[in-house]
Each structure stands twice: as C-alpha cells, then as structure tokens.
Amino acid sequence: MLYFSKLKIVSVIIFTLLLSYFALSNFFSFDDNFFKRNINLGLDLQGGSYLLLEIDNEPVVIQQVQNKLIDIKKYLKNKNVQFKNIQIVDNKNIKFQINENDASNIEEIFNNKDSEINPYFPKFKTHQFNLTIDSNNVQLKLSDYGLVLIKSSSQEQAIEIVRRRVDEVGTNEPNILKRGSDRILVELPGLNNPDRIKSLLGKTANLTFKFVTNNSEESFGTEKLLFEDGTEAIVSKRIVLSGENLIDAKPRMDTQNNQTVVSFNLDRVGTKKFAKATSNNVGKKLAIILDNKIISAPTIQEPIVGGSGQITGDFTFQSATDMALLLRSGALPAPLNIIEERTVGPDLGQDSINSGLISLVIGFCLVILFMLVKYKFFGLIANITLIFNLFLLIGILTLFEATLTLPGIAGIILTVGMAVDANVLIYERIKEEKKNEQNQLLAFDSGYTKSRTTILDANITTLIAAVILFILGSGPVKGFSVTLGVGILTTLFSVYFIARLITAIYVSKNKNKEKLL
To answer: For the whole prediction, is pTM greater than 0.70?
Structure first.
C-alpha cells in the first residue's frame, strides 16, 4: 500500500501541478489562451440581475384548440360522420351536434385507447380531450393532462428562445431555469442594468408579411393595424410569409438612402412563397408586421426572387441590432410577463466574497492548528495535503469554468473538514496497528489498507447525496452540490495519492525510529 512505482509518482506530480496551475490562473494572468481560464462568479457574488418571467399560455391554448377543431372536422368527414355547428367555447372546449344514432360511433372514435384524433392514452392513461355526449350534443373538453402538455411544450420552447436572445446579447454565464409549469427564472451575473434584456424578452417577435388593402374600412377578411407612429392601415388577414421562414437577419447601413435597415434571408420554402407573392402583386404595399404592429409597408417595385430582402423603418443601429436578434432567435410561443425583478449590486457581492473567504481562512487555520498539535509531523503532511486538495478543487472548477456561488464556498469549507477527517481516520488506525506490529512499514501499510473501506463508504454516500442535490436542486443548491461533489473526489485523490506518497517517503527513510506517530 505504501509502494509507489516511478510512473505513478510522476503521474501524481504532473496531475497535481497541472490543476494547481489552473487554480493559480484565477489570481495571476497568463498569456496562453488554453490555460487562460477562470472560475465565473455567480449572481450572489458578482452582482447582477434576477428576473422571474411568467408565460401567458392563454394564446397557446386557444391556438392549439383551433388547430384541433380543424383536424376534427377533417377526421369526421373522412369517417363519414354527420355533424354541424362545430365551434369553440370557453377557449378550450369544442362543441358540435350529431345524429343520435352516431353517438356510439363518436364514443368509439374519441374514447378508444388507440384513438388517432384523441391521443395520449397508451402513454399517459388519459386522453387529450374528455368526451361528454348529451343527446345529440357533443362536448370535447381539454383534459388536465392535455393542458399540462401544452404548458410544458410552451415552457421548453420559451426557455430555448430566451436562452438564444440572452446569449446573443453577450451576457456572461446566464442561468436560465424552469420554475413550476409556467415560469422561467433568468439570472444575469454582472448585468446591473437589465433594461435592454427586459425589452428583448418582453417581445414575442411574431413576424408576418401581409398586403395592405385598398379598403378604407375594416371588412370580412381584413383587419385594422397601427403603425408605430399611431397611424392606421387596413391589411388582409391572409399571411403571405411568417418569421418561421427566416434563416438569418442582420442590421446594416443602406448607403443609397443613408439609413439603418434589417436585411433578412429566407429558407427555400419562404423564397418560393415570397417570389410568387411579389411577382403577382407588383405595385401593392406589403406590410411588415411585428407583434401586431406595422413596422413599415413598402411598395413592391419588382418581383423579389432571390430569397432576401430588407426591413426599413425609423431604426437606430441599436434598435436594428435588437430587431435582427429577435428575428434570428425566433418568436416566443406565448407572451412573457416579468413578475419579479431584483438587482444585486457588486458591493453586496464583494461583501459575500469577503465573508466567505474569512470563514474559509478561519476554518482552514483552526484545522491546521489542530492537526499540528495532535499529530506533529504527520499533521504537517495532512496540512500540506489539505492545501493541495484546495488547489485541485479550484483547478477542476477552473478547468470547466464553473460558476461559483456563496453556497459553493460553503461546499469548499465543508470539503476542508471532510479532507482532514479522512487523515484522522487513517492516523488513528495506524496507532491501533502499531500496538500489534513492530515493523513500522507494515503498521503504516496496514493502517492505510484497513481504513480505506470506512473512508470510501463515508465519502461515496456523501457523493451520492451531492449528485441527488445536483439533479433535483436548482440555483444555489446546485452550486453547493458541485463544489461538495468535486471536493469529495479531490479529497480521495489527495489522501490516497499525495498524502500517502509523502508518508511513504518519510516512513521509508525513518523506519528505524521507535516512534513515528
């Protein structure tokens, strides 16, 4: 157990020095790009902004039920089922009338566990819609699980689009998490003025192209929309093109008119649609609409067949950049409302860092003093190991550019105590072995061997707890679990490789001494 091959000695030294180098890169600047890594500070340490967003799922539910109504109409026609007066009530229920003779047929269609038009039963033991038949009146009510799936899908899409928008702004290490079924937590370390982010997240960015009509008043098939300056225009309800067909958007300067515009490129399907629409409507005005507000309505001078175009408006370069960012990231499935907002100042974050470091230093010094008094030279070995353990821990966090939070510092402090605990178990076991073994080398070797099972059991159970905290926890809890989990691994390495190596060298050279411990 005390024997180390030359290869193992070299490997331990290289691994320790390499991670120590990464740890020191947080305190000293290095020119090498690969080794230039740092631990990122979390919101509670660095300061920044905290936003809690709530998804307004009502439009999504309405859209899903509307789509379902169209599918049901087609399906019943294909099955030769007679129905009439099909409509949506209360935004999430579908009602229609049938012949009473078709009641059993309707029940088979919608309540069959393998129903094509009313799915989910094989997987979730409940259908998407609950069926009620009263005489010749049929009602399909969106089930609780059907509603949950809509909200879950909407939340996942919203998180992805929020992440794209935040990433494009360049915020360092944002933390974007689910909260319940319809909320999203956004933490932005280092960002003390979140106004631009709030503006970007508050826009659905639903882009559509519609033709302006010649009608002076709203009629069937048309709607009245406003320009950004408040003037009105009557546009067709038919969507010529939507933002789903955009593949890229960028701000640029139009040198001919000396104004900022947003240029865009379309996918293959969008290119065909745009080419056909502009070819057949030369001379007409095409309204470019974002979130039900007309940005501009240029006149089509000639067919646009190249799959690219530009959006003009009273843009500054910043507003054009934000517009392009919104279009690239895609439209949110539902509006987002900011229901809670907090800003943590950098001074408060620095106070947290100072408090955490003072706690670490005090705990570290008390542990070092205890080990020196209790175990003399071997206490010094344990203390040297403890220092390297901290370097290894910080080095691994730096290597993966992890985010350090205040609970993360608590995890490091706990690691210090657990690392010493392993050495105490080993040294006390060695003392027990020396009572029955005169050979110093054998006593030390037996002490390390027989204490290994106890140390592994204690650390592995704690590691399992850390993994569970990481999987089920969020935010601060994850920060604590990361440093605790990594700290357990570095503790086992430092105790059974670094401390044991130093101990083996010392014991081998002083094996004839009567009392080594």
So the answer is: no
